[in-house]
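Shipment paperwork, digital attachment
Item: protein structure file
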Amino acid sequence: MRFNPAAREVICKVVYYGPGLAGKTTNMQCVHDHSPAQQVSELVSVDTHSERTLHFDWLALEVGQVQGFNVRFEFFTVPGQNYYAATRRQVLASADGVVFIADSRREALDENIDSMNEMLNNLRHHGLPEDLPVVMQYNKQDLATALKREQLEPLMNVRGWPSFSATATRKDGVIETVRAITALVAERMATQQVPVPDEDPRQASTPGQPQTWLISCYRCQTILEVPDAAIGAAYTCGVCGSTLEVFDTDRGLTRAPS
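Attachment content:
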């Protein structure tokens, strides 16, 4: 969670995880389209030829108050391609909740299990708590080779997380999934004391932890973690070597220095 004392706002991060083409972006598009216009931001997406989401989607959704603070959820998706393992790990950092989107097709079972094992390893890598809210969604239930939720549960959900059957292209199960994860995250947050530091309100970090931001390289779209994402801040992409200038702090967007 990130805190903005000046705005009395708590920002919660939810990551949609799962194998490539399982339906993560379709879920987010459905959530975006279903949400009231005054409560939801623009849906940001980067498309490629090989998969619809190259790095992440981001969607901010305001859902009310907890402990007198406005609560805003930011939703991210991870890229499913095997060669973006490092990006998946980075996007999962500091998550307050996770939705795992499984591809219900029988032929995708091995990919689902590999993705689940990778996610669990990444959660341990970041030291995220054992009680981190996680919701399972078994997508593509309309397809002929889809395994039923009851068949997938013993294989994919040994921890007994809440789970839903879904056909995201028809919007079935999508809203139920996002309501479940936001409720779990808000419930967990309500049991924690929201700190209101007396320091500079622009610093939204938890005491003892440095504030970091995710920005994307405008040229190669690599995700970078940086200590400051103020407008005009300059960085060098470690992948393509481009010099980056931050111009949109909310979405972590960069451009060539002007």
